[in-house]
Structures are given as C-alpha cells and as structure tokens.
Amino acid sequence: MLYGIGITMSKDEENNNTKEDNAVQYMKITSAVFYGLSSFLITVVNKQVLTSYKFPSFLVLSLGQLIASVVVLFSGRKLKIVSFPSYSNDLVKKIFPLPLIYLGNMIFGLGGTKALSLPMFAALRRFSILMTMFLEFYILKIRPTSAVQMSVYAMVGGALLAASDDLSFNLEGYTFIMITNALTASNGVFVKKKLSGSDLGTYGLMFYNSLLMLIPALLFTWILGDLEKALQYSQWSNPLFVIQFMLSCVMGFILNYSTVLCTQHNSALTTTIVGCLKNVSITYIGMFIGGDYVFSWLNCIGINISVLASLAYTYVTFRKKNRQHQPHDEDRVKLLQNGKVENGLIGSCVQSSELKFKNDLIGLALASLTYPLRQHRIKKMIGSTKFAMISRNIRSLYSTHKRSIATQSFKQHEVSQHSNENNEDEIMQKEENLDEFAKEFLNNQIKMTPFQKILLTAGSSLAALVDPRRHDMIACLGETTGEDALHKIVQIMRTSEEGQTILSEKPRINTGTVNLDELKNMSPDTLGHNYYKFLTDNNVTPDSRLGVRFMEDLELAYVMTRYRETHDLIHTILGMPTNMLGEVAVKWVEAINIGLPMCYGGAVFGAMRLRPKQRQMYKKHYLPWAVKVGREMKPLLPVYWEKRWSQNIFELREELNITTLELPKN
C-alpha cells in the first residue's frame, strides 16, 4: 500500500522502480566522469601540441577536430553502430544557432589554450559558471537551489581570489577565454533545449554541427593563411607530434560527445561545473609542468576555496533526494486524520512528530537563553500561550540547576578545607620526581579543549599559508596534527636500545648541553665538526627552536621537541643547506621517514614557492633523491646523535643507508 492512499504496489514493481532510479543515477555520474576525463585529457594534449611543439595554428587544429567528428560519426552510421536522421531542408532551422556556437567555442578555446598558461586558463574559465546559471534561468526557466547558488558564488569567488594576485595580463588570451566562457554557457543551454525539442539525438546534433561548419572553417583558415603555415610546419616528420596531433583531433570528437551526453543526463550547469573541476586539476598540474607559473599565497588559497565549492556542488547535485519519496508532515497529518494509514506508518509519523517537537523545544530553549532580544519572533512562530509555558519551564530548570550547584559547592568547600594540606604535599612530591624536561614543559604547557584545538589547527594552517615565515604557526600546526605520527615514532624508538635510552634520559640539544667549541676542534670528517660547520655556515643556533606547548602527553611532547632540536642534524647528515631547495628536500625526507603531517605540508607547499629555474632542479634532481633516500634510510629519531659526535660522518651515513645528492657539474 502506498501511504494508505489506496494504490497497491507489488514488490516486483517497487524493485523495478528502484532499479530504474539507480540506472538514472548511474548515467548521471558516469556521464559527468566521462566528460571530466575527456576534458582533462584534451586540455593536456592540446597544450602539448600548441605550446610544447609550437604548432603555428590553432585554427587548423580546430579543423582537424571537425573532420574527425564527421568521419567517425559517418562511418559509425554506415556500420549501423550509431543512428541519426538524414539531412532535411529544415535541419538548419532546427539546430540554429548551435553550429555557430560550436565552432566559436572550439576556435576560441584552442586560442586561449595557446595564449595563456594553464593556471591562468583554468582561473579565467570559471567565469562561465555564472553565465550558465543565468542563462538557464532566463531561457530554460530553471531556478537553482540556494545551496547550488552558494556553491557557484563560492567557486567564482575563489577563482577571482586566485586570479587577483599573480596573473600576467595578456589581452588576446583574456579576450579568447571570455568569449569562450560566453559560448560555453550558451552551448550548454541551447543543447539542452534542442535535444528536448527535436529528434536529432546526441549523434545527430554533433554530426550536423561539425558538418555544417566544416566548409566555413576551411575557408576561414585558408583566408587567414593558417593552412599554409600548417603545411610548412617542420615537425610533420616527427612521429610523436603526429600521434599527439591525431589524438587531439580524435579527443575533440570524444569531448564533444561527452559534453552533449553530460548535458543530456544532468544539466548545463553540471557540465560547466565538471569542466571547472577539471580545470582545478589542470591548475595544480600547471603549477609544476608549465614552467611559467609564479607562486602566490592568495592564488593558492583561492584555488582551494574553489575546489571545496566544487565538491560542495557535486554533493548537492548528485545526492539522492530521499525526502522526495517520503510524505511531508502536512500530508501525514491529513492521512492520520482520515484514518487511511497502516499501523507501521502511524508509528513512524508519531515518532517523527515527537522527535521534531523535542528538537523544537531544545532550539527554543537555547534561543530564549542566548538571544532574549529575539523572543518576539519565537512568540510569533508558536503563539503566546505555548511560548509562556516553555519560558516558565526553562526558568524553572535554570533555577533548579543553580540551587543544585550552590548546595554542591557548599559541601565541596567543607571537604576541600580538610584535604587542601594533603593535596599540597602530594603535589610537592610529584614535582620533585619530575625530570628537567617535564618541569619545563608543564610550566609552559597550554591546555585546550578538542574544539579549541580544531580552531587552533585551522588558524595556524591559514596563518602559515599566508606568511610562511611564521615559524610559530608552523610549529603550532605540527603539534595539533602530529599525535598519531608521534605515537608511531615512539613505538619505533622502543624497538632499539638507542631509542629506549633517548626516551629514558630525554637528552636536549642546545648551547647549554652541547659544547660547540669542542665540536669545532674535532676532526673535519666527524659528525660533530660537520654539525658545527653547518651552524656557522648558515648562521643558525641550536637555541632557535620553539618549545612544545599545545600537547597533552608528556612523552609525545618530548619526541616532538627531539624532532625540532635534531632538525639541523638531519640537514647535516643529508648534506643539505637551508635555502629553499634544501629545506623542501629535507622536508620530503622527514615526511617519508618520520611521517609528521606538517612535514608533508611543508614539502608540498614549499615546492610551490620555488621559482621556475629552481622548480626544474627540484623536479629533476632534488625530489627523486629525497623520495629515494627517505624510503631507504633507517629511522632518524632513534639515533642518539650526542653520543656520535666523534663518529666519522661518512661511516654514519653508510650505517643509516644515506646517500648524499650529487648534482651534475655545469
């Protein structure tokens, strides 16, 4: 029985409906993923052909994509793999202005790809989202939900923030991309309209779009002289270029098909958003492989805001709206009054109503306690009589709670007077048994609730992103996020005698415990002398490390302190300086060997700050070396460095399976 309305539905029919719903949802998701992958691949291939190989004409590449679409679809129709209607005299009228939009989108999109770097291209492409949303509203009368609108605005806001700080102005590239944005929005909306209003289908629309624009595109490229430039291109004998050129042409057809498919099964806005998700990936890749990206913290933050907004839109769009299959509260009340609901549904309605009423009471109680100035709004919602009753109950509960606290406080005060003296003696005895590190840590410790720790983590990460020189924020982030990794480090240290000794003795490395003059006079090939030389060459001191303050566990706090105080020794044993390349390489080694999340963050975001020449050295030499050494070397924190000052540094490196980086000589 369907909610007691009198319509009987068998289990087989219900199962069939469920399968149909799942099939529809499956097609939505797969069509969106297919479009995203196609769009991602064609962007990379087009960039390789137009920029890396310096192919002279994006117009000729557009022509190649048109020809590939016509040939593939015509062949598929002859082989009866696909089907679409034959040409008719009123065909142009049916699909106009889609062919013009289709050609313009292809040409200006490729022009923008050639003229701009990948991060700039991705950032500017996000302006198509707002255009699509507005066009869907005015042409298709589709009003997006508030959640969709907020995610779109957040995405565009993140894109604006990312683009505001580091994009070099290129008038031609900007013009091409903004035209492409308008055409993309128009194409998505008109495809949805034409598909629903004609019998052409996906393949027919794509075939005739390409066919009708093939001759105009050929004439256009010939008039501008691009055909001659392409024929005189010197790389036609290069098989790698030919393969990528052909792949770009075929991927153009696949992209066109995936675009229509995604729009048909979802919406024009979904197609645009998926394209922008792809652009986020392209942006991250372009930071490393483009060679022309200049890092900016505002750009990085804006990109991440855009990513989060894109994920939010994806969730809002593709989640199953189960509430649509359930009766609303008003319908349930009517059904209950009519007596047409089965017992199970009556119980469900009553339970749901009780839970809702309890939640309303809690919300009203909090509102009346926290926002007394808004009481007139609550009265208006539920009526004066019910509001007065709830207010009396709240005041009664609050008064009872205060009296209970006062009584308990009086009794506790009497007991505390007799126990204060005993407690003071116990505290004195415990303090005498503490070691020096424990006394120092407990004296500087700042205790926090879990919620405060979450806020501190978010604040310190944001501050560290905005200003990487804030070492206090980076240290704070390491403490609030490193607990799990530190537990694993302690377990590793307990498996070796040297590590157990460190945990027991808790040695410190600072100018009060290390005799730097003694290290200076050691043999040049010893660890101690090399450590002293590292400190003097880089103008650093063992006392520059901040103390641990935000951790709860005493042992974990010491291990974090040990990591900070041995950081310069890790530089020394790896032979890495304190410049940007050296710091990023050491952070990768520490991340893999020690496992602290802060180290991974420093390695990833530190690499983004490298200049183009540094980035080339980083990708070619520093990063492969750091990953290899980090995986192969023995754990570093169980090493008792202070007892190895006189050990030969080359023998120590061999013992720890460390190979230093050998850069090629110019």
From TrEMBL:
Binding site for Zn(2+): H567, D568, H571, E583
Domain of life from the UniProt record: Eukaryota
EC number: 4.1.1.130
Cellular compartments annotated: Mitochondrion inner membrane
Transmembrane stretches, start-end: 26-45, 57-76, 96-124, 145-162, 174-191, 203-224, 236-257, 269-289, 295-316
Major subcellular location class: mitochondrion
Reaction(s) this enzyme catalyzes, per UniProt: a 4-hydroxy-3-methoxy-5-(all-trans-polyprenyl)benzoate + H(+) = a 2-methoxy-6-(all-trans-polyprenyl)phenol + CO2
Cofactor requirement: Zn(2+)
One Gene Ontology term of the molecular function aspect: zinc ion binding
Any one of the GO CC terms: extrinsic component of mitochondrial inner membrane
Keywords from the UniProt entry: Lyase, Membrane, Metal-binding, Mitochondrion, Mitochondrion inner membrane, Transmembrane, Transmembrane helix, Ubiquinone biosynthesis, Zinc
Membrane topology summary: Peripheral membrane protein
Pathway listed: Cofactor biosynthesis; ubiquinone biosynthesis
PANTHER family: UBIQUINONE BIOSYNTHESIS PROTEIN, UBIQUINONE BIOSYNTHESIS PROTEIN COQ4 HOMOLOG, MITOCHONDRIAL
Task performed by this protein: Lyase that catalyzes the C1-decarboxylation of 4-hydroxy-3-methoxy-5-(all-trans-polyprenyl)benzoic acid into 2-methoxy-6-(all-trans-polyprenyl)phenol during ubiquinone biosynthesis.
Similarity remark: Belongs to the COQ4 family.
Subunit structure: Component of a multi-subunit COQ enzyme complex.
Name by which UniProt lists this protein: Ubiquinone biosynthesis protein COQ4 homolog, mitochondrial
Organism: Clunio marinus
